[in-house]
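Reopening: structure tokens for the S-adenosylmethionine complex, inputs below.
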Amino acid sequence: MTVSTGALTPHLARGSRVRIECERLVHRGLGLGRYAGQVIFAFGALPGEEVTVEITSVHRRHAFADTVVVHRASSDRVVPLCPYFGVCGGCQLQHASYRLQLELKEEVLAESLQRHGLRMPEGADALGAAEPWGYRWRGEFHLLAGRSGLGFTERGSYSVVEVESCPIHHPSINQVLGTVGPSVKGQRGHPETLQLTVGAGGAEVLVKSRPKASLSDRVVSESASGNPVGVRLTGEATEIDYRGRSFRVYSDSFIQVNQGSLDRLYETVVDWLRPELPGSKVVDAYGGSGWLSLRLADEGARVTVLEQSPVSARLSELHAEMYRPGTLEVLCGSVEELLPGLEGLTVAVLDPPRSGLAPQVSGWLAMAGPPTVVYLSCEVSALARDLEALCRLGPYELDQIRLVDMFPQTYHFETVALLRRK
Ligand SMILES: C[S@@+](CC[C@H](N)C(=O)[O-])C[C@H]1O[C@@H](n2cnc3c(N)ncnc32)[C@H](O)[C@@H]1O
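Re-run output (same inputs, fresh job):
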């Protein structure tokens, strides 16, 4: 039914409003509905809901839209906690109960595999986050031209929306948001973004500006002294504790942003591999600062860490020296170059960035990879593509898969997959 387009026409145009039923949620948290045979992807619609949407862009086979009226609401619809939800580009699912968010993510994972000719193995499950709010230990904020506040990119635009606080970020980040923005305003070098990382159990926030070095140490220490909230600011490094170990963190070194749910992710890997780890030769490819590598070494594995970033590779060495001297071998360079040089591997743990595996890495694994592979992924489309190459077209079978939700309120999630050579 056309609501306010003027003419009754099956042709959708930007700004026109139509009433649709949302069939299901798809990747990126959008509700899929249809109007006059055309697929509409609607922000803010939940499965089973009848909504009026306003078309925001029209393409050859589909259109995008925003939900403007909910006529029949899902029983899982909840009031978003954040006043910026829908404007800010950070979250997509605050209007759904956490139970539904998890269910929808499971469906997205199953569908992504199916599209690549793969089925979810028996016993596949999903672990929810330890905390659905306040879980991000690191965030990147934009500084607004002419204003002292910090903000995020708006949904569907390059503009920035100023935020006073963000409920998915750690309370310590929220505590310094109000003071750090005004302190850096007017700096020479004009920082454009600030990266904030929580450390020292929440007592410290590591501040890093981009472009690099535009924020002097003096400014950070001045903000720290003028900071009334009791969270220390630092421009150097910080420390995060995990399982009784203190890991050094720099702004340039990768961290898993959801520290509260980290154990669910890493211990899935450790539990699945435990029986075969003692004495085995394991590669932790894309190993970061060696947090997971050390857990694998704890279980008796001899681990080689492959890591491209010199800062993270050096941290892996440092953490190995501190906690398990002599157990990790750290090679700094790309997995593409280094992996084919490793011999006698029994297990490969892969945790690539969002883009997934380079073709030469999946090609090498298919040809010469070890009997067991564990693949951790933060981007389901890249995971499904790589699993197709390794399992449907390659020599592995998908033995287990688990969704670990490290990013509540957003459409993102982590997946861990266990592959066995056939
Ligand atoms: C998703 S993070 C995983 C880090 C680590 N497994 C963890 O849990 O902390 C990906 C890591 O791979 C590194 N990286 C990205 N591309 C790489 C490549 N082609 N070769 C080696 N390392 C790479 C990044 O620097 C980053 O530390």
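The longest strand covers residues 62-72. The chain has three domains: 17-77, 100-131+258-421, 138-242. Marking as resolved unless the reporter disagrees.
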